[in-house]
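BUG: 3D viewer hangs when loading the predicted structure for this chain

Environment: internal workstation, default settings.
Expected: structure renders.
Actual: progress bar stalls at 90%.

Input used:
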Amino acid sequence: MYGSEELAEEERRRRRAPWGVIALVLLTGLALIRNGSGEFDVGPPQPAPAAASDTRVAGGDGTVAGLAPLAYAVPDRVRIPAIQVDAPIMPVGLDADGWVGAPPPEEPNLAGWFTGAVSPGEKGTAVVVGHVDNTQGPAVFYGLGALKKGNKVEVSRQDGKTAVFEIYGIEVFAKDDFPGDRVYASKGGPELRVITCGGGFTKQNGYDGNVVAFARLVEVR
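Structure tokens produced before the viewer hung:
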């Protein structure tokens, strides 16, 4: 029989694909959300050049001094006060084409946690995705490109803890030249990537890029 900790670990293993499979998909830059209408007079904000990611002071293992990684726990809500985001989170995996699945487009205020990576607060890089817009208007991460270094992302988890991440970079990358290793690879400590569509838009191909917010765990509540 499994104890509570063993059951949690077993559930974690079932939910997460082998790292080799994840790396094959993520590090080639294929795991990107694709949806977005782009059908509005004013497009979503794009990151400023000054917001490009940089190196922040951290421990030798990539953690903030005195802050240990959390255990696995399913996230259930994301808040980004600087852009008025307060949204529930649903689990998402890979779709049939090998892309990270996104929440249903008809649900604009809904984010997705990629279950093939770690949960937010664990050691490694967690991934949260969401739409930039739909046919009715802006969606959950429409304002992602307006974030600045130092802004916070709060992720509440089903274990009752809230993982607070601080943004240290916000950039837009072309989908056909996406730096998967830079975005997804583990930095040694608990990190988070928040991703949505961005860049230019055409009706034929949709958005040509992805906005990525880079953040590191700085507090647990």
